[in-house]
Write a structure and sequence with these properties.
Elements lengths: L1 E4 L3 E4 L4 E5 L12 H10 L7 E7 L7 E7 L5 E6 H10 L3
Antiparallel strand pairs: 1-2, 3-4, 4-5, 5-6
């Protein structure tokens, strides 16, 4: 698999480290069921077949964190975005 880094260009997957699901949102620790919510957040993961957003780091390149949208059945990459841009959009309420 080859991943198109927005900063370095297309690179082999061996230059990247996979973190996991990029759609997860950390639970609010102040809610009454916070312990159960954190247990689900840490231990329960889906294993989707199809389109999925994943968090990767270009570990051997520019060190950037990226959100890669790919089809888990074919490994076809649809989109690659800088994770910091997504986090900024989420913080401003644009996402």
């Amino acid at each position: 698999m080859r991943i198109p880094c927005p900063y370095c260009g297309v690179r082999g997957v061996d230059e990247f480290s996979y973190l996991g699901d990029a759609t997860l949102v950390r639970p609010d620790a102040s809610v009454p069921n916070a312990e159960a919510a954190f247990a689900d957040y840490v231990y329960l993961r889906d294993n989707p077949a199809g389109r999925h957003r994943e968090l990767w780091q270009h570990a051997v390149g520019c060190q950037s964190w990226l959100v890669v949208t790919r089809d888990t059945r074919t490994h076809a990459i649809e989109q690659v975005e800088a994770a910091r841009d997504i986090a900024a959009a989420r913080a401003s309420g644009a996402e």
